[in-house]
Amino acid sequence: MTTSQTLVPCAQISGPIPETEGNRAVVLESYGTERMPSYGYIQEEYFVSGNAAEAPFLTRILVRRPEDMGKFNGRTLTEVSHIWGGTSVWRAYNRALMRDGYMWIEIDSQAPSALDLIQGGNPERYRDMVFTAGELASDFAGSIPFTENPSPEILAEQYDAFKERWWKATPQSFEIIAQVAHALRGGLPGIRNSEVKTLLFAGISQTGGVVRRFVEQHHDAMRRADGGPLFDGYLPGASGGEALPDIDVPVIEVLGEAEFQSVRWDCGVSGQVRGLSHRRADSETFRLYEIAGMAHRETRHMSQKDVLRLKDCPLPPGAHWSTFPNSHIYGALLGLLADWAEGKLVPPPSQLLETEGHTDTISRDQWGNALGGVRSTYTDAPTSTLVAATPMGRPSWYHGNETPFDGQRLQEIYGDIDSYRRVLARVIDRLMLQGFLHRVDAEELRLSAEELRF
């Protein structure tokens, strides 16, 4: 251990916290929880406490795990709740997590959401929650800069200033994350077989930025008592920034096509890709996967809340919200990262979208779909034109849309339905061989293809 490294104490974990009919845990992201019983999963809540940034803290972690811990695979995926609510990783990964026996843990280390949305949602249950005072989630919600006709430089300046507010509002967050991670190695109080073998940290969008900053500034500096790393692997998604450094555990960075498009005036956000500055060479511990056709947030399986929120957003004639399977991609990459962290494989080389020269403008095929990057049946057995970031403002920009090909175009491309299905089968086989598609998700795609008519 070098002199610049700090031995991180373990947070104190207490619980699980009992629930009654009128006093239940606040759930920031209910999407996907309705399917937990069919996978044999339960939810529990614990309080965690300690000192961070020279001040006391008390917050909570939310745990979703197999009720029968004999089915726990030893792998735990952690995320922090978004600064203004939500758990984007659970939303994207929940099917893969539950079918493979992972434990999922929400670490509520960001004070704006913890105090405003969790404590505010049940003041009695969380009366002892303590953080350093600062801005709350309501101070941030809906306040992403949006200026008429800005240049990319203005968008970037505004968004960077906005992000600085995030970090100032969360001064204890990274130490809380580190202390909770250290404590989780020993398992959860009173839960047999809950010791963590492989601990992973993932984020999407704002929380992807949290993961990136942890990798950049805290992974090497904060260590366990034995000098080992706090996390065994990282999966930052849909965020972007300067190229990440090499560290001593695997990092898989994921960027969708939307993160390239969202920096345009059409969408009015410049928090993700800045040119190609995030790209770097592969190493023994780094891969970058840019996903053709993937939006910032999946609309393949929309909740009723999503349906109502997006019902008045304009779409191009003939288009509908995208059915692109973000969750298939994320689930496959989670498996690659976990296996890589455990020394079971080396993942495929980085896959980069094709761009025009050295710009971040994406090159496209004759149907308007992106070239290069991680491929899918949507790009290599196409039946529609994909738009990964629906233009003009919020809340539509972070969702994709697609315009289906008509029967004549499908016939021109494939000839007949049997030929289409043969092309689809070849693409699926290739993706499975590469590790970018799980077998169960492949079967879902095959079944969906049965519904296509020319």
UniProtKB/TrEMBL annotation:
Residues 13-445 form the Alpha/beta hydrolase domain. It comes from the Bacteria. This is Alpha/beta hydrolase domain-containing protein.
